[in-house]
Every structure is written in C-alpha cells, then in structure tokens.
C-alpha cells in the first residue's frame, strides 16, 4: 500500500531575498527539486542517491515540511501533507539527521531527548515508550543510557539515540538523510541493519538519502537516482546496480570505490561542468556530459518512461533518458563500461 | 564542551538534586581557578558586609561628631575613634563605607538581573525567529547602543525622581544591549545544529524550542553577562552619584566621593575619597574575576591562557 507519494514535487529557491527581491524585475530561481514523482509503499526502503547539490537533501526537507513545496503535491496515506496539522503530520513522519554530534542537544540526557517529542504530543506512557525505543535501537539495557549526556556516549550510540528518538512517536515514515556518513566505517553496518529491521519488523517506510551507493545497495529495496533535481532512473536495487541503463547511473556506479586492488580504475573524467541549477538547459540536463547525446536530446523532455526491453517483473523500472529507454545506446563504446 | 565536570552518580537523583546541581554549577566552574576563587571570596565578603554593614558600623553615618570643645570633628585623619577619619561634616567615613556596600550591591545585582533577563529574552527571540522580528529587535538594540548613558540618566533623573530604583531601572534598560547581541549571535549558530530542526519536526512550538532547546545552551553566556553587568552598573551608578544625581536618601560610595569633591576636601581628607574608590574597584574587580573565569570555561577557545 502506498504510504508516501510525491507527485511532480518541485522546490525552487529565490536567488535574491529581501530588498534585492523587491527591486529586481526578473526573479531568478534555483531549481533544487524539479518535478519529482516517487511512490513509497509500506515497509519499503527507497534510496535516493546522487552527487552533492542534486537536491536530495532538499527533497527530504520538503517532505519534512522544513521547506514548503513550490509546485506539485505530496500525499501521506492519500491526503495532501498540507492538510495535516503539524503535530498530526510529525506523529507519522520523522527524520534521522546526518550528524549525530549536532542532532542531539548537548544539555539534555538521553531520557530528556526522547521524552521531549512525547511531551509535545502529550503522551503519558513516556517511560515505557522511551525504554522500548532504546531497546529497539539496541541500546540495552536502557538504564545504562537513560541518564547519560551526549558527550558521554560514542558516535554510533549517538546515532542510535537519534534513531530511537525518531521512533518514540511510532511513525510510519522515516526520512534518513545520510544517517551513517558521519559514523566510523566499522559501526555503519549495525546502524544500517537497524533501518532494515525497522522496515521489516515495524513496516516503517524509509526514504534513505545518500551519496554512498555501497550503503544504499546494502539496505534499499528500490533506488532513485537524482541529478540536478530530477530523477534520472528509478528501479529495484538489483536492477539499478547490476544493469544500470541510464548513462548517469552508469557514471555514478563506476565512481564507487571497489575494494579490489586489481580492479581497473580507468574511468571517464568529465570536462563539462554541471549546468547551473538557476539556468537549466532545454531538453536533457545531462546532455553536456553524456557521450550518447544527440540533437534529439535538446528537444526530448525528461519524463520517466519504462525501458523498451523491460521484462514483466521490471514494471517499476523507469528512466528519464529517451535513448536508453529505447535501448539504442551502444555501451561498448564507453571505456568504463567494459571493465 | 565537556569541561564542566559532572559526577555520574549524582545525576539520577531527584529534582532537588538536579536543582542543587544547577545551583552549584557556577561554583564548580570557579573551583580550582585562582582568579575565580579570589573573586568569589571578595564578593562573598562584600555580600556579608551588605547584609550586616549597618549593624556593625560604629556610628550612624549621618550623625555629626562634635569634639569636646564643641567644634565639629571636621576632616579629621585616622584615629582610634574614627579609623578612617571623618568627613567635612564630622561624619564617620568607615560607617559610611560599610553602609554604602548595600546600595552598591543592590544596584549591581538588580541591574544585572534586568540586563540578563531582557538581554537573553531579546537575543533568543531575535536569533530564533529571524526575519522581521530579528530586524526590529536588532534595530532597537542599535538605537539603545546610541544612547549616551550619563546624559540620558541625568536628564531622566532630573525629570523623574532621584531614587536608587529609577537608577537601577534605567541602567537595566540600557545595558541589556551587549547581552542581547551576543546571545543572538550564539543562537544563530546554535540554530544550525540539527537538534533544533529535530525539535521543529516533532511539532514543538517556537516558545517551547526556545526554552527547552536553546535557553540551556546560552545560559553560560547569561551568567557571564550577569557578572559584567554588575560591574558596569556599579561604576555607572557611582559616576551618576559623583556628578550629584544620586539618590539623596541613601549613603553610597559615589555620593561620598561627590561630597568630598564638592567640599574641597580631597586633599585634606584623602581617605574620604580614596576608600569608596577602592571599594568600587574591589567590587567590580571581584565580579570581573568571576566573569573572566566563567568566560574561559564557557568558551573552550580561551582555555589555557589564564
């Protein structure tokens, strides 16, 4: 069942604010998120990947109502999110932030951090919920953590506390923005498994935002690849990672480090700059950097379409490239693809 | 930031424990720092004087002492009867000094309370809300920065009433400006921490976020400005009194100096003007010592250069 649905969601930021905005006649916008449509079912972990500046964090913040939607619609359980009261909405949707060193209040004990959302929502069974959350986040026994301050626990434990805090309200959706990027590699797997457990045992829908394909591959059921505010390719994790079909996805995957010293590291380095998100080109945003680009790419818009070669079980597989979808890309001509 | 030692075992205790823990925090910070300890000892001594000063003063500070030959004991030097001598009008300098402690600390602490409450509130509100709220509050702060305090105080006191409470009120109304600016800038950087956004995405109201998330993090700065404002206001109140606009119903150090100057007695009876001056320096130095120590602890970057 669809829990969270984005329908042509867009977020533009003004380049000028305050007095400048009043004086200048032509207002310019940074198009951070551009007509993104996504469907998240219950218990699904969707990975949102892309290089920095592609709008993935902005998208997360739009869903968290930290930013307001410029255009399009986001619905939760079929109801537009603006129709929810703030508390009502955040009861359902919670966020885990990137940096656990900043996302916990240094002046509050673990108990106070977790009690605060419950107090805001007027729950009386605070102590039980706090203990239950901490146990789920593998901070056991909870008594050992309840009265500690953030500076007294490790980075991994901090992020577990942040996850436990997101869980105390028992939400149905969690937005996780790079939740392990600040953590030591040795403890990432444990935190990642926690997210997987959340989806499997509690049916929580997770939007996992990351630039790190290795972690995305580890826990996500579906992946959306973003570039300049657009979804370039969307599909089941296996599909995207084993047979990337969009030229940009292919590039992104080939940039992932491989733990194999004999691996051929030849890869294409782009000369072309990423286009300015204030002044986006017509047609495909990726055409300047794409070796398959033809004149048709100036015309063709970037709506997501199923590839021609899609098989029956590939019904969720979509891409924004008309040539890749038609299947007329000759991958053999690209050096990095022949590894 | 973990420079404040917190004993792991005391924390699980009752509310009373946590309250006393909070009350002891300023002291715990000063402990072990020589400058801070000296400041604290001086201040505690002055506090005791402020409380019992009038009781231990050997004379009524307003009583004129008449010599045996019927003349006024005017501008006398130190003697067994008057350890610090007498004033032009034959009053005991030591008694005035002791009684004056109370006004000085009253002005210092009451003004500092107004300064810290106003400054912290304005700083938190402007910093957290931002936008036009911030613009309006900060422009008001700028205007207050432009007020020259002595002329302003003298005019207002002339128009109203020369009472110690008007002086306190006016000083409080002006000296909150520094506190507000510093707290605002601290809030601006605190706001970037994700724990604030995290609180926002639970649906907590803005006042709740200010009180629960931000206030505990700026309190060390408020403590610091409490110490500074105590010093500023004692000096300024003394200046106002020295210029002759002090509360005429109260004995204060500033008024002692004013009277000594006004009666041309500075050279004849130097203790009359030197002793209150020394007391002002002592009081202000003690709160600055405490403030400096506190600043070093609240700001880790200053640590190690004491």
TrEMBL record, chain A:
Tree of life domain: Archaea
Presence of the UniProt keyword Metal-binding in the record: no
The keyword ATP-binding belongs to this UniProt entry's keyword annotation: yes
Record's keyword terms, sorted: ATP-binding, Nucleotide-binding, Transport
Domain annotation ABC transporter: ranges: 4-253
Record SUPFAM superfamilies: P-loop containing nucleoside triphosphate hydrolases
GO terms classed as biological process: peptide transport; transmembrane transport
One example GO MF annotation: ATP binding
InterPro entries: AAA+_ATPase, ABC_transp_ATP-bind, ABC_transporter-like_ATP-bd, ABC_transporter-like_CS, Oligopep_ABC_C, P-loop_NTPase
Protein name: Peptide/nickel transport system ATP-binding protein
Source organism: Halolamina pelagica
From TrEMBL, chain B:
InterPro entries (alphabetical): BP-dependent_transpt_permease, MetI-like, MetI-like_sf, OppC_N
CDD domains: TM_PBP2
Database matches in SUPFAM superfamilies: MetI-like (SSF161098)
Domain ABC transmembrane type-1 residues, every copy: 101-291
Protein name per its UniProtKB record: Peptide/nickel transport system permease protein
Species lineage: Archaea, Methanobacteriati, Methanobacteriota, Stenosarchaea group, Halobacteria
GO CC, alphabetical: plasma membrane
Keyword annotations from UniProtKB, A to Z: Cell membrane, Membrane, Transmembrane, Transmembrane helix, Transport
Organism expressing this protein natively: Halolamina pelagica
Subcellular localization(s) per the UniProt record: Cell membrane
Transmembrane annotation, as ranges: 38-57, 104-129, 136-157, 163-180, 223-245, 271-291
